[in-house]
Write a structure and sequence with these properties.
The complex is a heterodimer of chains A (about 110) and B (about 120). Chain A is mainly β and about 110 residues long. Chain A contains no helices and 11 strands. By secondary structure, chain B is mainly beta. Chain B has no helices and 12 strands. In chain B, strands 2, 5, 6, 10, 11 and 12 form a 6-stranded mixed beta sheet that branches. A 4-stranded antiparallel beta sheet of chain B has the order 3-9-8-7, with no helix packed on it. Chain B has a two-stranded antiparallel ribbon with strand order 1-4. The chains are: A mainly beta (about 110), B mainly beta (about 120).
């Protein structure tokens, strides 16, 4: 099976812009979670989507949003970018409900905000 | 809230030696999962090993094994016959599926360097 894919892999934006990141889970997986990784804050949970519904949300401002499509692909959007949004954004897929309870990660999207 | 603590920010070991990375966690729940993930310089997060709390037997995956002490809330990773490719950041992570929460809580990581 193909692994989790994320696009784009690298992105440079300026403050105030918005950005959309995409994640395609492992075939058959219906749960997608997003994490932000920064040197200062480490790995932090953003949100999880399952069957097109947001199931959990981390402690991030409303500028961070996401959605999931019927094919389980997910997008996350960050509006009004700030310098502090520069990070590696990781997506993970999980075969939720199948007693697997294991998240498999994509290669990440590196976002640099100037 | 669950917390995960990795008290060793950096470690180094000679190639072919054995190294143990420490992890402790705090939770009031009884059913949960613990993981070790490896993040090499490529930044790809790779699952190393997984442990279910209700299983008393320690998980093993080839050269990787864990010492899971539920009462002590300790979950250490042992890497035997270490190889240069083991050089990476290692993260301990906790998940409790209670109430449908599939969120992973990570420790701060241990940077492991294998010396040739």
């Amino acid at each position: 099976k193909a692994g989790v894919t994320q696009t784009p892999r690298y992105l440079i934006k300026t403050r105030g812009q918005q950005v959309t990141l995409s994640c395609s889970p492992i075939s058959g997986h219906r749960s997608v979670s997003w994490y932000q990784q920064t040197p200062g804050q480490g790995l932090q949970f953003l949100f999880e989507y399952f069957s097109e519904t947001q199931r959990n949300k981390g402690n991030f401002p409303g500028r961070f949003s996401g959605r999931q499509f019927s094919n389980s692909r997910s997008e996350m959007n960050v509006s009004t970018l700030e310098l502090g949004d520069s990070a590696l954004y990781l997506c993970a897929s999980n075969n939720r409900g199948q007693y697997q309870e294991t998240q498999y990660f994509g290669p990440g999207t590196r976002l640099l905000v100037l | 809230a669950q917390t995960v603590t990795q008290s060793q920010p950096e470690m180094s070991v000679q190639e072919a030696e054995t190294v143990t990375l420490s992890c402790t966690y705090d939770t009031s729940e009884n059913n949960y999962y613990l993981f070790w993930y490896k993040q090499p310089p490529s930044r790809q997060m790779i699952l190393v090993i997984r442990q279910e709390a209700y299983k008393q037997q320690n998980a093993t995956e080839n050269r990787f094994s864990v010492n899971f002490q539920k009462a002590a809330k300790s979950f250490s990773l042992k890497i035997s016959d270490s190889q240069l490719g083991d050089t990476a950041m290692y993260f301990c992570a906790f998940m409790s599926p209670l109430f449908g929460n599939e969120k992973l809580t990570f420790g701060t990581g241990t940077r492991l360097t294998i010396i040739p």
